[in-house]
Amino acid sequence: MNQVFAIAATTVGEAIRRRVLLIILMVGLAFLIIAPSLNELSPRGQQQTLIDISIGILRITAAILAVTLTVYLLPNEVERRTIYTILSKPVHRYQFLLGKYLGSVVALSLMIGLMTLVVILAFGIQQQTWSLERISPLIKVPFMMIFQMSLLAAVSMLFSTFVTPVINFFLSGLVWIFGTLINPIFERWGAQGEASDAVTLVARIAHYAVPNFSNLDIAQGAATAGATQIRGSEAVHMANGIVYAVVYVCILLVVAVLIFDRKEL
Amino acid sequence: MRPNRSPLVWIALIALFATQGLMSQRAIFPTWKQNYSTGELRIDRGLNADQLLASLAGLREMVAGILWVETDHYFDTGQFDAVLPLIRLVTWLNPRQVEVYSTGAWHIAYNFTDEQNRSDRRYIPLGLRLLQEGVQNNPNTYEMYHETGWMYYHKVDDDYWKAVHWFEQAVEKKDILPALKSILSNAYQRNGQLDESLNWYWTLQEEAERQYAQDSDIMSMNRRDTIERNLNNQIVRMTQRGVFGRRAGVYDQYPYDTHDPVDLNFTFSIRVVEPKVIRVTGTWGIPTTGARVRMQLFDHDYELKWEPAEDLNFDRDADRTFMQDELYTQNGRFDRKIDMSRNPNMYPFTAERYKVVFYYNPRSAPAHIQDKIGWDGEGMTDQRYLDTERRPGTRILYAEIELTRDQLLMRGDYANGYVYNSPGFVAAESDTGPEIVIPRTLRK
């Protein structure tokens, strides 16, 4: 495991050196631009909208980060030929891949965490409130976002084993869009039995197979009434989502390793 | 290096794949559907390209938030027609945003008005539909139930059993604000459930006492005092209006306020002064201010039902006319000019015949008038227009006449105008008249 951690640490260092952390400042700036424009709304509407928009900015930034951090991980190593140096040492290909992935997930988590902190601080100062009840959506949703983006990073990692970065970027984007819509699609055409048998079957298969990002999205209604809106246990739902994400990430990484093992470098 | 992987890897892969699929469909999807589903996909309708792209990318709530800001801007600048589709979009994108439902429904039901600020009541079923959609999507919070109850209580202001139905559900919710709970008691009163009203006040009083014992702050004290005052008022009113006396069989033995019913002797006159402009005058036997007689003018075959529409599409009955006004009465008279000529969308006048209805329900009356006429109208009578059948258990005032399109539009034989005087109507000699004046010494 030492090799894996060493590669992961190097990957985190690379991410920091690439100054992607500057994107955090962009999030804070976006918040400062948006917040005053919401003054027209009622205090509650302002707060809810601010939370919704902040979560939206976090999500889009995190998604772009997840993909951009991952798509170049393998191609850059091959292009710079550093991969040969690494693999000539007692490091297996799966260790290299795993290390790279873990490094990008740590970097991603770090950035989501810092962006969340910036948003919470800006929200608290702007709204003059530090009540945990009001801030909790800005903690819970980004927490689940880390797993959501880790799943997206795993998708990009898998694609990066057999396609170019540009194609990977678009493929990952498509999977992201499809994966965020898969639950609504399944609800409409797969579960309710309103569609023809063939459509239902396709919806069910897609729901079974496609990485489901909406399973990890608890933003819907988070800004509104929080816990009062939730039926059943939110914690159980979140825990199930995390387990799901971990299992799916394992699948993607195993497939990535299988492909990477057979790849001619 | 091309290693041959053990079959165990493939078996593990298949097992993991099966596990995630089962988890997703069996464990996560049901709770997702319950708590995070937006009901239907419907994100393609009405969004422009960038909004659609953002929604597809999992940013529905963000797009909803931005659209809500845009909605507020249209509202502030009076562009009401632009508001409706945006409300629809926002509630599709983020059906958990309860404020959009409550503000949206209020806007639909209250803000589409004619030049004289009479709201277009054809929109009320649409407002109620939006609220009920809000209830379906947010069943755990009191707010949508309360707002729906309020719409029936305040805007429909008639079918009070429906207000009771929704308020009863609202008070069951844990997050309801304590101050909002007592509205249920008022709704019970208007629905004729006086015992339930009193019992609810007792319940609230006990609750407020407990709260005050736990936390003796000024808020708790104010709440307790307010509820006690409301409770006392209710007991006094039920006593003075003879509710308990009637039950004890001694109503006729004591001088209850509702004895000797006041003869309303309701009369009215409708004068068409210009096409689609009428002047309504009349008299009745309630001299105090504060009472309003409801007047409706609508297509003779049109029954506007408040029941929420099946689907919310913002298409009111565009070719139907329905006007409702509350005629303010003072010194036993009312006089109102109603101009329906400037809003052809609200008053298209396509039908040949129109009903004009005057309606007064004592359940809606303010307390100082109910002190005389009672909750059920037992303290009022009218030789011509007393109705005891339309609202079983309540004596209401109900007068109905029919006018033709030619009369209202001053056409054909009615080119010089038209006047309808009800039996017994005598035109007042002047607009002023004996006025009940509060002596200066009693003014503050």
Q: Biggest β-sheet of chain A: count, sense, barrel?
A: none
What structural class do you assign from the helix and strand content of chain B?
A: alpha+beta
Shape of chain B: flat
Indicate the mean pLDDT of chain B.
88
Question: Into which percent range does the helicity of residues of chain A fall?
Answer: over 70%
C-alpha Rg of chain A (nearest Å): 20 Å
Residue stretches of chain B low in confidence (pLDDT < 50, at least 5 long) are: none
Biggest interface and residues each: A-B, 68 and 60 residues
Radius of gyration of chain B: 28 Å
The whole-number mean of residue pLDDT values of chain A reads: 83
Helix and strand pattern of chain A: HHHHHHHHHHH
What structural class results from the helix and strand content of chain A?
A: mainly alpha
Percentage of residues in helical conformation of chain B: 40-55%
The number of helical runs of chain B is 14
User: Biggest β-sheet of chain B: count, sense, barrel?
Assistant: 5 strands, antiparallel
Distance between the termini of chain B: 99 Å
Spatial order of strands in the largest sheet of chain B = 5-4-7-10-9
Describe the structure.
The complex is a heterodimer of chains A (265) and B (444). Chain A has 265 residues and is mainly α. Chain A contains 11 helices and no strands. The mean pLDDT of chain A is 83. Chain A has helices at residues 2-17, 22-37, 43-71, 73-79, 82-88, 93-127, 132-135, 137-159, 165-191, 197-209, 234-262. Chain A has one domain. Chain B has a domain at 262-428 and 435-440. In chain B, the strands form 3 sheets. Chain B has a 5-stranded antiparallel beta sheet. Chain B has a 4-stranded antiparallel beta sheet with strand order 6-3-2-11. Chain B has a two-stranded parallel ribbon with strand order 1-8. Chain B starts with 6 loop residues before the first helix and ends in a 23-residue tail after the last strand. In chain B, a hairpin with an 8-residue loop joins strand 9 and strand 10 (396-404). The interface between A and B is large, with 68 and 60 residues.
